[in-house]
Amino acid sequence: MQVCRVASRAFRPKFSCVNIASRYLATSVPKPPSAFSQRLEAGPSFDDFVADNVDPEESGPTKVTLGNTSQPRLPSHLKTKIPAGPSYASIKKDLRGLGLHTVCEEARCPNIGDCWGGGKKAATATIMLMGDTCTRGCRFCSVKTSRTPPPLDPHEPENTAEAISRWGLGYIVLTSVDRDDLVDGGAAHFASTISKIKQKAPSILVEALTGDFQGDLSCVELVAKSGLDVYAHNVETVEALTPFVRDRRAKFHQSLAVLAHANFRPQFECFCR
């Protein structure tokens, strides 16, 4: 009897025909629509949303306002336009092509569109000579610093003069990073650039905004005699704050000596500020 039960259990089918048929009939019979389906059928169709004859009073608000509308907007005199114009595009293209740097871009000046976008003889720019890496680290400045910056580009004076002569500017400012790694602090490089600019564009006014050359007044004299129109040097702050704000190699009285040497020498034939 035990053997027969095992055999019959082994050959028993798992699914009977009756079960399969009942399941098929159960799934093939449609269910009555639910209350939710009935509401969808009675609601608006897709055509109602794209129809042209929609009553404005029934359509609801058509404008969406994002953000905090209670916060006052900036006044118009504090807003700047996106830089554009033929003069701006020409200056930027030449700077990229000749590998030159400007304070306008390095400092992300918001007035760059006004300076570069001016008309002929009205546009101006501030060229930063001797690379974009400074040997000093003043606390207020965001220019890159390094004890061993890249060497000077010997073609920079000629490239700078060539670019400026193309632009037709009325006034150009030349400044630079501090290069304490050089014997003359870059004074000869500065003077060479000014001389080449005056050769290619004699009518342009040139301002040289130099460093202190570590107090070497012979370097100041070299730049002042190069043919520039304005000699400038930044004191940056008052004497009491100088040790806390400027690099330790930048001294207040050292800066005053630079300005005094450039200002009280009539043979330099330049304005000092």
Automatic annotation (TrEMBL):
InterPro entries: Aldolase_TIM (IPR013785), LIAS_N (IPR031691), Lipoyl_synth (IPR003698), rSAM (IPR007197), rSAM_sf (IPR058240). Pathway: Protein modification; protein lipoylation via endogenous pathway; protein N(6)-(lipoyl)lysine from octanoyl-[acyl-carrier-protein]: step 2/2. PROSITE patterns: RADICAL_SAM (PS51918). It is found in: Mitochondrion. Its EC number is 2.8.1.8. [4Fe-4S] cluster 2 binds at residues 134, 138, 141. [4Fe-4S] cluster 1 binds at residues 104, 109, 115. It catalyses: [[Fe-S] cluster scaffold protein carrying a second [4Fe-4S](2+) cluster] + N(6)-octanoyl-L-lysyl-[protein] + 2 oxidized [2Fe-2S]-[ferredoxin] + 2 S-adenosyl-L-methionine + 4 H(+) = [[Fe-S] cluster scaffold protein] + N(6)-[(R)-dihydrolipoyl]-L-lysyl-[protein] + 4 Fe(3+) + 2 hydrogen sulfide + 2 5'-deoxyadenosine + 2 L-methionine + 2 reduced [2Fe-2S]-[ferredoxin]. Its main location: mitochondrion. Residues 117-273 form the Radical SAM core domain. Keywords: 4Fe-4S, Iron, Iron-sulfur, Metal-binding, Mitochondrion, S-adenosyl-L-methionine, Transferase. The keyword Transferase applies. Its cofactor is [4Fe-4S] cluster. SUPFAM superfamilies: Radical SAM enzymes. One of its GO terms (molecular function) is lipoate synthase activity. Binds 2 [4Fe-4S] clusters per subunit. One cluster is coordinated with 3 cysteines and an exchangeable S-adenosyl-L-methionine. It comes from the Eukaryota. GO terms for cellular component: mitochondrion. GO terms for biological process: protein lipoylation. Belongs to the radical SAM superfamily. Lipoyl synthase family. PANTHER family: LIPOYL SYNTHASE, LIPOYL SYNTHASE, MITOCHONDRIAL. HAMAP family: Lipoyl_synth. This is Lipoyl synthase, mitochondrial.
